[in-house]
Amino acid sequence: MDLQLRDKVAVVTGGSVGIGLAVARGLAAEGAHLALCARDEQRLRSVVEAIATDFGVRAIAVPADVARPDGVAALATAVAEEFGGADILVNNAGTGSEETILEAPDDRWQAYWELHVMAAVRLARALAPGMKARGGGVILHNASICATQPLGYEPIYNVTKAALVMFSKCLANELIGDGIRVNAVNPGLVMTPDWQKTAKLLTAGTDTTWEAYLQKVADDNAPIGRFAAPKEIADLFVFLCSPRASYTVGSTYYIDGGWLRTTT
Ligand code: NDP
Q1: Whose CA is nearest to atom 32 of ligand 1?
Q2: Could you say which of 112, 157, 253, 254 is catalytic?
Q3: Which domains does the chain have, with CATH numbers?
Q4: pLDDT digits over 181-206, tens only?
Q5: Per-residue model confidence as pLDDT tens digits over 53-110
Q6: Cα–Cα distance, 150 to 137 (Å, whole number)
Q7: Handedness of CA 261, 193, 43, 229 (dihedral sign)
Q8: Residues lining ligand 1, judged by CB closer than 6 Å?
Q9: Is residue 229 within 8 Å of 191, Cβ to Cβ?
């Protein structure tokens, strides 16, 4: 299937590792040019160089913190200067949390609100007018199955990802008249370096291997009995970014190996 993404310009936040990197590589493989953003400049630059070499597309690295207004402004400015605007925005940057509601202070809630919600709000304001001028576009939000089915140890993550899904729906209604399709994706367990790091920490000095620990997480939660590879998630993102998904508007797509325990 030709996804008709050649020479489109895509912005991916958190594009230096994990799901964001897989989405970036998937878009580049279809011929899209990229602006990738993350905070760790060295890792970001090496990833961007590799993508440009591997796929022959234009790719820029924008080291910035999207949880901050000035980080979003820096990203939008770099995109305008290099490409004159964007056709695709993938709001992917995000991270898990661990707390109890009774112990977490206000500033912790605020930090996750800025990262998971306000980054998407500000990037929509910064990039959507340019998409409209280019004849339309696509905005995708990487939320989480936890937006619907909460994990007990991370209430702030659950709440802010649920807010992101509702933001995605509201934005879709506001922008479809301008030819901009907005959707959200709710992944389940995805094998990223962060999960591996956590598993290694939790199993250090025990008689369980980190691999066995992660297999138990998968067995306990996902009927498919394994984590997804980032590329399995990225393929859905790339399809949703493409004109082949032209009737997808304002929806949330689960990709979770059967983990969601309800129908929605
Ligand atoms: P990773 O931790 O592997 O990667 C996160 C990416 O986001 C990195 O590139 C990181 O780079 C960047 N990032 C984090 N904070 C910021 C920030 N403030 N500003 C700019 N960039 C930032 O995450 P995953 O690939 O696992 O997850 C990606 C998204 O998918 C997240 O939103 C997550 O909630 C969601 N998700 C993940 C699941 C999983 O099982 N892995 C399941 C469901 C949803 P740097 O640190 O250099 O800034």
Answers
A1: 94
A2: 157
A3: 9-188+229-252 (3.40.50.720), 191-227 (no CATH)
A4: 999 999 999 999 989 999 999 999 99
A5: 999 999 999 999 999 999 999 999 999 999 999 999 999 999 999 999 999 999 999 9
A6: 31
A7: negative
A8: 13-14, 16-20, 37-40, 43, 65-67, 92-95, 115, 142, 144, 187, 189-190, 192-194
A9: yes
